[in-house]
Design a protein that fits this description.
mainly alpha; 434 Repressor (Amino-terminal Domain); DNA-binding; Transcriptional regulator; about 0% strand; Lambda_DNA-bd_dom_sf; Cro/C1-type_HTH; elongated; coiled coil
């Protein structure tokens, strides 16, 4: 049995990082100045020349070494070690630093004042129109 380590598939790593970034092949192709088919060929290649790798790394926001040494396991370990509570509901808990009822009462009072100003403006408009009609 051969115990030699299998070489990294650089093209597959580029594809995985691109997908994690939410980027399409067309966008990467445009950014590095090649066709989408070229990007597809690069992602299918086990090796990529250093110049292209550097350009791709810059567009993806990683280093060339980051692409070479990329592994899905490392990403999953980082995510697993970063999130302590696996209950996703904890991400959506909201603890305001103010009393929401106070804010609601303030909004009601503000609306009341605006309504009173609107009614007053309408009264003034009616008075002005009546004065214009009497003047004729």
């Amino acid at each position: 049995m051969d115990t030699a380590t299998k070489p990294k598939h650089i093209g597959r790593n580029i594809s995985r990082i691109r997908e994690l970034r939410g980027m399409k092949q067309e966008a990467l192709a445009t950014a590095i100045g090649v066709s989408q088919q070229s990007v597809s060929n690069i992602e299918g290649s086990e090796t990529v020349d250093e110049e292209k790798l550097q350009a791709i790394a810059e567009v993806l926001g990683v280093t060339a070494d980051g692409i070479k040494n990329y592994s899905d396991e490392a990403v999953f370990n980082i995510i697993g070690n970063t999130v302590n509570n696996h209950d996703n509901a904890s991400f959506f808990q909201y603890q305001p630093t103010f009393n929401p009822l106070d804010k609601l009462v303030d909004a009601y009072e503000e609306n009341k004042k605006l309504y009173e100003r609107l009614v007053q403006a309408e009264k003034e408009k009616v008075e002005y129109l009546e004065k214009l009609l009497k003047g004729k």
